[in-house]
Amino acid sequence: MRTSRPSLRVRLTALLAGAAAAGALLVAGTSAAHAAGTPLRDLAAARGKVIGTAVTGSRLTGAYADIAGGQFGSLTPGNAMKWGSVEPSRGTYDWAEADQIVAFAQAHDQQVRGHTLVWHSQNPTWLTNGNWTPAQLSGLLQDHITTEVTRYKGRLAAWDVVNEPFNEDGTYRSTIWYDNLGPDYIAQALTWAHAADPSARLYINDYNVEGVNAKSTALYNLVKSLKDRGVPIDGVGLQAHLILGQVPSTLQQNIQRFADLGVDVAVTELDIRMQLPATDAKLAQQRADYRSVVSACAAVTRCAGVTVWGFTDSDSWIPDVFDGYGAATPYDENYAPKPAYDGIAEALGASVPPPPTDGCTAVYAVTGQWDSGFTGQVTIACSGGSLASWTANWSFGAGQRIAQAWNADCTQSGAAVTCSNASWNGTVPDGGSVTFGFNASWSGSNPVPSVTLG
Ligand code: G3I
User: Fold this and answer.
1) Read out DSSP for 209-261?
2) Which of 122, 164, 209, 312 to mutate to test the pocket of ligand 1 (most atoms within 8 A of CB)?
3) Which of 138, 292, 354, 435 has a Cα at 20 to 30 A from 385?
4) Does residue 210 share a domain with residue 61?
5) What band does 2 get if pLDDT is binned at 50, 70 and 90?
């Protein structure tokens, strides 16, 4: 959905909020990209992507509203559009929070993702406690979908129509819908939603389907068969509730295989949780993880964008559900942007200085030399600091050329050499070290360069 441009006042407020937050971060030194000032939504738009956040309606004032409106191009109501929220008693509707979020989005020139129409959770008790026949349940579901989708017709970019239909092994989850209506409740829900708003992009959304695995393959097979049958399915939502350091290596490949089926893909609920307390090393790893996820989406044309599941640690479901875990979002509890913000910005094309390398050094040594060649080794060691990823840079002073490297990816352009960590040795803990090596050619002399870390 495209809405009218926001008023100048709204845009100025967002910009001023960004500037104020940038001032705060310069002191804290947490996010260089935020200080640079281009909002994430503009970075994303320049790449044809949308960056979104889940929001809580009651919090949409002050700094929370400034960031939600200024930095993000899409909003997802975190709870406000679920069945239990909108129809707490049968026939009695409460649209207040959902309406508020949609109005806020329109005022800030944002898209809205509707979330969610058919789920096994957060349903009203009058529904789950009722003793319905399958025909009655089907009628109730059709009414619910038709009523809610019609209310926002033409104003929502997308709907998460069906949420979390699969078990981890790829079988269908036993729910009130599956148990009573069979697997075709999914096709019916999509068909009813499409009838109510033909312009909304209709998604199936699930978790633990980010990489290639049994669950994502079941989702893939379902989408394929729905497409073959002509059922209106437009997209697949990968929730992406991830754990620090565990971004699936097959994420981009998985996004691509869905795209190749002819549907859009969106990362719909991204957060990356860590065991508390957060440390500089964990936050640096989180920056790298956020960058990986957003980069994977940026690399696939049909990936529509990425939504974070709450932009601030003060509005995240993680601490309530995973004991001892938190700090999962790109802003801390006081709305200061975290290194994760830089990871997102970088993946969206911003030029961001590399993470600080304080407390870490790189030492270059020649470990063997013969007529025309030599073996070199670089050891990166940290004491009083740590790294989640690294790049070692130097300039050869006498025409040396690298032929082959191990435990790093090295490139040479003229005299300038850049070596980046391999996938398995990016982390250098406080008190730890990693070493990589290379063979190179030399003639005349073989002076030792000084290495800088980035
Ligand atoms: O609104 C009541 C409040 O009145 C009461 O005082 C308070 C006491 O616990 O509870 C409040 O409701 C909570 C609600 O969030 C709103 O904050 C519920 O207890 C709580 O269970 C509910 O959690 C939501 C969760 O879905 C339920 O499964 C999270 O906020 C929401 O972020 C989360 O979102 C889901 C997605 O929809 C689907 N994917 C997974 C994701 C995380 O679970």
Assistant:
1) -SSSSHHHHHHHHHHHHHHHHT----EEEE--EEETT---TTHHHHHHHHHHT
2) 122
3) 292
4) yes
5) very low
Q: Note the pTM of the prediction, 2 decimals.
A: 0.82
Q: Which atom of ligand 1 lies closest to the CA of 115?
A: 37
Tell me: do 153 and 219 sit in the same domain: yes
The reply to whether 305 and 384 lie within a common domain is: no
Shared-domain flag, residues 121 and 33: yes
For residue 309, the ligand 1 atom closest to its alpha carbon is 32
**Residue 438 structure tokens:** 């290379």
Q: Is the domain of 43 the same as that of 111?
A: yes
Distance 428 CA to ligand 1 centre (A): 37
Q: Tell me, what CATH number does 394's domain have?
A: 2.60.40.290
Rounded average pLDDT over 215-226? 98
> Does the pLDDT value for residue 120 go beyond 80?
yes
Distance CA 225, CA 229 (A): 6
| Domain that includes residue 112, residue range | 19-347
Residue 302 lies in a domain: yes
Please tell me whether residue 407 adopts helix, strand or coil conformation: coil
Q: Of 57, 74, 69, whose CA–CA distance to 18 is shortest?
A: 69
